[in-house]
Amino acid sequence: MAFHKKEEFGKKEQELADFAKALAHPARIAILKVLAQKNECICGEIVEVLPLAQSTVSQHLKELKNIGLINGTLDGPRSCYCINWKAFERFNNYMNSLFNTLKIKKEKACC
Amino acid sequence: MAFHKKEEFGKKEQELADFAKALAHPARIAILKVLAQKNECICGEIVEVLPLAQSTVSQHLKELKNIGLINGTLDGPRSCYCINWKAFERFNNYMNSLFNTLKIKKEKACC
DNA sequence: AAGCATTATCGTATATTTGCGATATAAAAT
DNA sequence: ATTTTATATCGCAAATATACGATAATGCTT
After folding, report:
1. What percent of chain B has pLDDT over 70?
2. What is the pTM for the complete model shown?
3. Nucleotides of chain D touched by protein CB (<7 A)
């Protein structure tokens, strides 16, 4: 059986894991980079740049939106995406917090 | 069809995605925390702390080892794990680099 | 040599992710 | 009103990930 089990871990660990999962595919990292570079945020432009079908890109965008790393607003027939800096900052802080927590014991290597 | 397609992205994006994937499960984050806190690094202790079967923990350890975030050495019948700080530092730098790259355009929000 | 403790691996079941084409939806343009 | 354009969603197929029990492998202990 492969039940979730993920709920049995701490809330923070769960949330950090979810954030990390959002970055766990090169397409999504590429999307974030495009969103940061071009300030246009239009789906079609992303599709042009990525080696993926429109529906697939749309799916990746949805995942990024669900986790909160990007915002999407309708602009006529198109949709305009952009990075949610607040959420991004939070993620960044989580990551740095994790790194720092782990680094405390850095000197006492055992193997 | 769902072929990989992942190879069609940049090397750096791919590597960062792989790192992120390693953190994309709360069990693996928990393992890293345990490895940092206790400086004992023995598999059995991790199994005791996590709500997972021994074989499952072993699998997660293998993934962390494959990506290079931890080292594992044999110590008699047990195996001693510890964090690979060099790789961790590299991952941290990658992440910060990504954040900084994205932040450059932070002011020009479009939506 | 036999038994014990520890960990890795195998086999298997289930869940999730990835990807595409086809279709639906919605606004704009004709 | 109809067509065009842009995006989202659905349905499906294949690949991966998660989890466990059972078993194998390895090194101590007796």
Report:
1. 87
2. 0.90
3. 5-11, 13-22, 26-28
